[in-house]
C-alpha cells in the first residue's frame, strides 16, 4: 500500500478551497429574469415616463384659469387654476423638466464609467419617483418647478442607459425590432398620459394623478437596487476589482502550495499588494478632475466620429419637424380644414402611426440585415417618401384626402425611430454608447423640438397662412433625408463588438451579472 503524499494532499486541499471560494462568488441569475423580460420591464418604465409627460399636458392635470362670461363662471381647474398661473408660467414647467433632462443625461453617461449602469438606472428611477411624489405635494409654483426639474434628472439616467442594455441582450438578428419596441412606448405613453391625466385629474384631482404615477414606478426603482446588477458591455466597476483580488489571492495560494520555492515570491507579492491597498484614495477634487478629463476625452472621440455626427444632424432636422407637428398640428388642421375635433384626429393618427410605423421600421431593417449602411438607406428613403406624402397632403383642399396622405407620410416618418438609434449605438465602441445616447438626446431637443415651436409661430405670424407655414416646415424633411443619404457612402464600421479600455476580459471574474445573453450561453455550455 502506497503512502499518501502530505504535500500533494495539502495542495489538493488548497485547490479545493480556492475553487470553492470562486464558485461561491459566481453570480446566480434569477430564473425569471430573461432578455425578453428585461425588454418588457424597460418598455413599461418608458411607458410610465411618457405617461407623465402626457398627463401634465392634459386638461385634467394642466387645467385652466377661472373664466367668466355673461355672468356665468367656469371654475379654475388643475395646476394652472390652483396656483393661478399664466400660460407662460405653465409653459415653464415643461422647460424645467427639459433642463433637468438635458443637464443630467451627460452626467449619468459619464458616471457609468465608474458606477454600475444598472445601479444608476435604479438611482434615477428613485429620484423620478421621489420628484413625481413631490409634484403631488407641491405648495407653490416654485416647489412644483423644482420637482419637475428633478423628474427630468431622474428620467435622464434611464434614457441614456436603457437602450445599450437592450442592445446587449437582444438577439443579433432582432436588435432593431427590440429597439423599435422600446421606442414605440413614446407615442403610446403620451396618448395614455392624455387619457389618464384627463380622467384622474378631472374626477379625483391633479395631485392624485402624480401620486398614481409614483406608485406605478416604485417597484421598478426598488428592483434597480435589490436585483443583481447586470454588466453593460464595455464597462468594469469597483466591484470587479474586489473580485479580481480574491481570484488572484486564491491562485497565488494554490501556486505556493504546489511549488514551495515560489512561496518567497508570493510573500513578496502579498507585501506589495497590501502596500498598494493601504494607499489612500485620491482626494475628491482629484477624482472630479479625473472624471472631467475622461469625459472630455470621450466627447472628443465622439465628436470626431463622422458617422455619428451625420446621424445626429439628420435626427435634429427630423425632430425639428416632428416636434412642431405634435405642437401645432391640431391648430393647423383646425384652421386649414376647419376640423371641429382636430385634437382627437391628430392624436389618434399619431398613436396608430407611431406604433405601427416604429415597429415596421425595426422589422424592415432586421429583414434587410441590420447594418449601419442599411440603416442609412432606410432612413433616407423613408424620410424622403414621408416628406413627399406630407407635402402632398397639405396641398390637398379636401380634408379626407389630406388625412389619407398625411397618415401614410406619418407611418414612413415613424419608421426611422429604430434605425436612427441603432446607428447611434453601433457606430461607437461599447463604452461610449451611454454618452452617445445622452448627447444625441441633448442635441435633438436643444436644436430640434425646443426651438421649432416658437420658430414656426414666428413664421405663421409673418405669413398668416397655415398652409404655407406647414409646407415650409415639412420641406425641412428633405435636407434631413439628404444628410442621412450621405451616410450611405461613409466608411461605417459596426463597433459594438470592439473591446474598450474600460472592459474586462471574459476570463476575469466579476461580482456583476453578465448580460443575459452571455448568461444564457454559459448555462447551456455547463449543461453540456
Question: What brief labels describe this structure?
Answer:
528 residues, mainly alpha, two-stranded antiparallel sheet
What does this structure look like?
- 44% of the residues are buried.
- It contains 21 helices and two strands.
- It starts with 5 loop residues before the first helix and ends with a helix.
- It is mainly alpha-helical and 528 residues long.
- The chain has a two-stranded antiparallel ribbon.
- A hairpin with a 2-residue loop joins strand 1 and strand 2 (72-74).
In percent, how helical is the residue content?
over 70%
Shape: globular
C-alpha end-to-end distance: 38 Å
Average pLDDT for all residues: 80
Strand portion, in percent? under 5%
Report on the biggest sheet.
2 strands, antiparallel
Structural category: mainly alpha
In N-to-C order, the SSE pattern is: HHHEEHHHHHHHHHHHHHHHHHH
Runs in which pLDDT lies below 50 for 5 or more consecutive residues are: 14-31, 238-254, 261-269, 274-278, 503-512, 522-528
The rounded Rg comes to 27 Å
Instruction: Kindly report the spatial arrangement of strands forming the biggest sheet.
Output: 1-2
Count of individual helical segments: 21
Q: How many DSSP-defined strands? A: 2
Amino acid at each position: 500500500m502506497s503512502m499518501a503524499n502530505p504535500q500533494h494532499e495539502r495542495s489538493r486541499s488548497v485547490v479545493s478551497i480556492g475553487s470553492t471560494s470562486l464558485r461561491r462568488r459566481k453570480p446566480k441569475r434569477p430564473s425569471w429574469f430573461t432578455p425578453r423580460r428585461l425588454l418588457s420591464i424597460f418598455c413599461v418604465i418608458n411607458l410610465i415616463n411618457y405617461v407623465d409627460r402626457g398627463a401634465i399636458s392634459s386638461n385634467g392635470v394642466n387645467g385652466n384659469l377661472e373664466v367668466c362670461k355673461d355672468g356665468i363662471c367656469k371654475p379654475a381647474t388643475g395646476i394652472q387654476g390652483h396656483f393661478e398661473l399664466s400660460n407662460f408660467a405653465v409653459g415653464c414647467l415643461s422647460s424645467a423638466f427639459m433642463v433637468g433632462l438635458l443637464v443630467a443625461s451627460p452626467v449619468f453617461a459619464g458616471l457609468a464609467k465608474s458606477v454600475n449602469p444598472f445601479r444608476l438606472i435604479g438611482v434615477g428611477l428613485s429620484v423620478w419617483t421621489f420628484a413625481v411624489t413631490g409634484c403631488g405635494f407641491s405648495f407653490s409654483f416654485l416647489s412644483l418647478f423644482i420637482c419637475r426639474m428633478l423628474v427630468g434628472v431622474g428620467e435622464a439616467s434611464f434614457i441614456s442607459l436603457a437602450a445599450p442594455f437592450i442592445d446587449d441582450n437582444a438577439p443579433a438578428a432582432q436588435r432593431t425590432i427590440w429597439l423599435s419596441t422600446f421606442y414605440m412606448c413614446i407615442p403610446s405613453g403620451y396618448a395614455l398620459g392624455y387619457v389618464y391625466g384627463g380622467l384622474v385629474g378631472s374626477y379625483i384631482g391633479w395631485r392624485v394623478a402624480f401620486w398614481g404615477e409614483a406608485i406605478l414606478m416604485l417597484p421598478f426603482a426598488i428592483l434597480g437596487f435589490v436585483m443583481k446588477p447586470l454588466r453593460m458591455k464595455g464597462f468594469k466597476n469597483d466591484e470587479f476589482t474586489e473580485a479580481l483580488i480574491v481570484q488572484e489571492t486564491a491562485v497565488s495560494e494554490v501556486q505556493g502550495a504546489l511549488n514551495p520555492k515560489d512561496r518567497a515570491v508570493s510573500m513578496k507579492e502579498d507585501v506589495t499588494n497590501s502596500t498598494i491597498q493601504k494607499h489612500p484614495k485620491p482626494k475628491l477634487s482629484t477624482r472630479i478632475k479625473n472624471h472631467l478629463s475622461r469625459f472630455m476625452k470621450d466627447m472628443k472621440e465622439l465628436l470626431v466620429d463622422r458617422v455619428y455626427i451625420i446621424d445626429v444632424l439628420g435626427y435634429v432636422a427630423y425632430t425639428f419637424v416632428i416636434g412642431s407637428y405634435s405642437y401645432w398640428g391640431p391648430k393647423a388642421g383646425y384652421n386649414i380644414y376647419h376640423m371641429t375635433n382636430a385634437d382627437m384626429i391628430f392624436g389618434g393618427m399619431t398613436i396608430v402611426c407611431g406604433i405601427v410605423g416604429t415597429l415596421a421600421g425595426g422589422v424592415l431593417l432586421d429583414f434587410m440585415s441590420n447594418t449601419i449602411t442599411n440603416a442609412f438607406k432606410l432612413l433616407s428613403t423613408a424620410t424622403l417618401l414621408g416628406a413627399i406624402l406630407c407635402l402632398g397632403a397639405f396641398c390637398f383642399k379636401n380634408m379626407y384626402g389630406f388625412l389619407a396622405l398625411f397618415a401614410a407620410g406619418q407611418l414612413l416618418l415613424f419608421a426611422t425611430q429604430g434605425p436612427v438609434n441603432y446607428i447611434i449605438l453601433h457606430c461607437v465602441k461599447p463604452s461610449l454608447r451611454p454618452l452617445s445616447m445622452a448627447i444625441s438626446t441633448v442635441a435633438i431637443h436643444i436644436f430640434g423640438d425646443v426651438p421649432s415651436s416658437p420658430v414656426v409661430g414666428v413664421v405663421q405670424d409673418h405669413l398668416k397662412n397655415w398652409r404655407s407655414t406647414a409646407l415650409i416646415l415639412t420641406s425641412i424633411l428633405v435636407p434631413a433625408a439628404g444628410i442621412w443619404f450621405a451616410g450611405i457612402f461613409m466608411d461605417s464600421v459596426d463597433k459594438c463588438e470592439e473591446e474598450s479600455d474600460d472592459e474586462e476580459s471574459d476570463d476575469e471574474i466579476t461580482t456583476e451579472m453578465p448580460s443575459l445573453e452571455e448568461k444564457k450561453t454559459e448555462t447551456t455550455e455547463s449543461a453540456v
